[in-house]
Design brief:
The chain is built from 4 helices and 15 strands. It has a 15-stranded antiparallel beta sheet. The chain is globular, with a radius of gyration of 19 Å. It starts with a strand and ends with a strand.
Length: about 300
């Protein structure tokens, strides 16, 4: 059984798109079987040292659904996160990605994804502070849609804008608008065609495969946008975080909590980023209970489940 995800010792809705250029299906708005809602916490860093921490600066959710149909398995995945400007000193940032992966014989045959995020070019704390002090009526977004099939990958990126007043607290309004803007703008967007050497998964699918793989160390390739990437991860127990999650009522089995220490790396370059996720091994809901990553040199984010 070939998953295109090799292990050193041996990681969301119902139908796949026939082509990337087709309208986004109503399936992506279906009710998921599995879902976790998160509280977002932020840490401001100066020379890699924390200088300011605030809890509840925004939120997020992860969702998944799996369905078997005509000998195929269709998995649909979503992840969204954003800030609440009233809790984040005016910072208005939001990102969303959704994927549908069709598998046959246990191996992924096609992946289709779409997503959007606020355009953010700040590379330092000073630049971020300047951006917060700048008042604008519109907020710029980058949108993407892509398809991976038969060793070839296509993606198309677009840009659009929304009223600046729209933020994470109004995600239910923003999502259908963004979906419409991507659908309308995609034929005119920038297209990239890539010959994927080994990957038939996109980002969220690779993350879920990493969680499911029982091996302690794993390596998985995936495609997102115009490039191939590698996800290298190592699973470890974490008694300290497990006890805290249990104290919050997020798990009844702290001994089952596994920490995934991962790194995302571009295959064609040296750019990479680290992340950590915690999940409960053997749970009916494999979605992470906690997620940590550092999107900017001056900013670290944590997303922890609100309830079990």
């Amino acid at each position: 059984m070939n998953y295109n995800c090799a292990s050193f010792s041996r990681r969301f809705f119902l139908r796949a798109l026939a082509a990337v250029s087709m309208p986004l299906p109503a399936a992506f708005s279906m009710k998921p079987i599995l879902r976790r809602d998160y509280r977002a916490d932020a840490v401001i860093l100066l020379f890699s040292l924390p200088i300011y921490t605030r809890e509840g600066v925004g939120g997020g959710f992860a969702a998944a659904q799996l369905q078997g149909e005509s000998g195929q398995t269709i998995e649909s995945l979503q992840f969204a996160a954003g800030s609440d400007p009233e809790r984040a000193r005016g910072l208005n940032r939001l990102g969303f990605i959704q994927e549908t992966v069709t598998s046959a014989g246990g191996a992924p045959a096609e992946s289709v994804y779409t997503g959007f995020m606020t355009a953010s070019d700040e590379q330092s704390f000073a630049q971020a502070k300047t951006a917060l002090e700048t008042t604008a009526e519109k907020l710029q977004y980058q949108g993407i849609e892509g398809q991976i099939q038969s060793g070839a990958a296509r993606s198309r990126s677009v840009r659009f804008e929304t009223p600046a007043a729209w933020n994470w607290t109004r995600f239910e309004e923003l999502y259908p608008f963004a979906e419409q803007m991507i659908r309308q703008a995609a034929p005119k967007g920038k297209e990239v065609v890539l010959q994927a050497r080994s990957a038939t998964r996109s980002f969220l699918s690779a993350m879920m495969q990493t969680i499911r793989d029982p091996a302690e160390k794993t390596e998985c390739t995936f495609v997102y946008g115009g490039g191939e990437h590698k996800l290298v991860a190592e699973k470890r127990s974490d008694e300290k975080v497990a006890k805290r999650l249990a104290a919050r009522g997020l798990t009844r089995f702290p001994e089952r909590i596994i920490a995934v220490h991962g790194r995302l790396q571009e295959l064609s370059g040296s750019r990479g980023s680290k992340f950590r996720i915690w999940f409960e091994k053997g749970s009916d809901n494999p979605l992470p209970l906690r997620i940590e990553f550092q999107p900017k040199a001056f900013l670290a984010l944590a997303f922890e489940a609100k309830t079990a």
